[in-house]
What we know:
With 614 residues, the chain is of the alpha+beta class. The protein contains 20 helices and 25 strands.
Amino acid sequence: MHQPSLHSPSYEGHVVARRASLRALLNSYFRETGVFDPRAGTLSLDPSLLDAGEPMAVALADGQLIGSLTRFSLGGQHRYGDAFYWRDGQARLRPLDLQDLVQCLLEALSPREPGSPPSLKLWDLRDKITNSYARMATHLDAFHRRYPDGPPPGLDHVRAEQSLLVGHPFHPFPKCCDGRGRQDISVYSPERESAFALHYFAVHRDLVHEDWLDAGRRAEADEAVPEAFAAALGEALDKALEQARDDAFGHDQGGLPAHGGGIEAFRALPVHPWQAQHLHEQGDVIALIQRGLLIDLGTLGAQAYPTSSVRSVWLPQSRMGYKLPLQVRITNLVRENTLEQCRRTLDAARVIDALGDRLQRDGLKVVLETGYRTLALDHPGVPAHRVATLTTIYRPLPDDGGDPWVMASLLEPYPGRDEPKLVGMIREGCGGELPALEAWFDRYLEISVVPLLAGLARTGVGFEAHLQNTLLTLKEGFPETFHVRDLEGVSLDRSVAGDTPWWQALGIDDDSPLLYSPDDAWIRTLYYVFVNQLGGLVAVLSEAMDVEEGRLWRRVGTRLEGLTLSDDPRLAGYAERLLHDPNWTAKANLLSCFHQRGDAPLFVAIPNPIKASR
Length: 614
């Protein structure tokens, strides 16, 4: 695996990245193996060997992992001391460093016969964890070099997207990024506050396949194309024509459009500059360029800012966003835009657009993807695998008068600080004082989980509304608007859509990948909305305010009790399940990565935190 190469991390960067990496790995392992309370009570161990906190002892294979918990979390987001030990069957202690601890946990997932070599899965997973840790450490160092006197004041949309430096609290390698190419992907990383012009190809209409919500959305996308595109295309066409005339009898017409036409015969296709260099090395792309079906115009236009997902970008001047393919393994998946993903995205966009305020209400808004543009799969010059690497999905950010901040970043503190960004923004909005926690939290529930749950009941639409797919705006410190993005993760309960007039009017095929069974639609909502998003907020907010998590989960329970009285039986039923089911469902990122189930992740049962809080 390609490892970071910019510089060795500083001691401070190493310590912080080590702590964050081990916390995510331990919390993932414990959640996914059913260790919901690793506290040990008392240990026959010299207390001076452990950091402050409660002793921890967890059985692994033929021994015990020993450490300490500095904070226990109902939702599993525990914090740990820095000292860890392995105690074997004869009670002998051995201190564990980062790699030792990683090896112990991974071997517990992959038992093998004595003397046999470790599995390739174990080696692969360990390499990705090391990659993530090293990148995290260098990102943290880069932040301190940019801001030696501390983080800058204020927080806008771009800065929030580009200051998610630690990442997913339940992923074994949240910052793993492997481009397997000549370019270092770090120069395009949001964590480095990068900005760059996009690379543009002009695609001949005979080679284009595209789909849009409507003609107006397509026109909006074309209006966002840089003014320099038409001039650059015209110049390229003139050069190709001149070259063809110079060639004897016109026999060699390389670069001249194979099917004729001027500027109006081409469509603009923005591409990530890293991806453009990768494509330049592919024989089929070279052939399309030589035939004049694909014209490389280079980098054009205003600066684009990568968001927290790395491969999606946003251009503030046009408020246009693009979800771009990137032949880079980010966490555990290579990030392409397949036609099935595009179909699911556009089917979801059509449903959401048609439902209007039946879905988007009470402070909940959806960032629509409005179309996609790619190469025609049925063209003889386009191999099947090429389409996913040259498909751009269009995602304009609505101008609602606020500056939405991605939730995942709000819940992280800046490097060197303890307070999450969210708490600082609340204090700033409230004139320097923090409001009553319950009042703030209740307002958050009313614009986020309540309308999401009600929307699922009313329309069957569920969102992959995890912390990195949700954005929050505040007004005078209090939650005002809650945006959900990335429609590829939308699910539609087929039992609700059924024969409803709005579904029939859309004409979407019954085999759409948007459609899910009732159970699957519910599980996705339960995990993404309640376990990931709400669970993350509860854990961070309660720690920052120095209150127990149960206090906030009981507030959630009280609100859900009110929903059980709803006139909508589906909504009331969902609220009953959330209150009384003994277990909720969580995505098992560690096990899914270990078993290489990125496209079909595993899920595990975890204790219902509302029941546990009462």
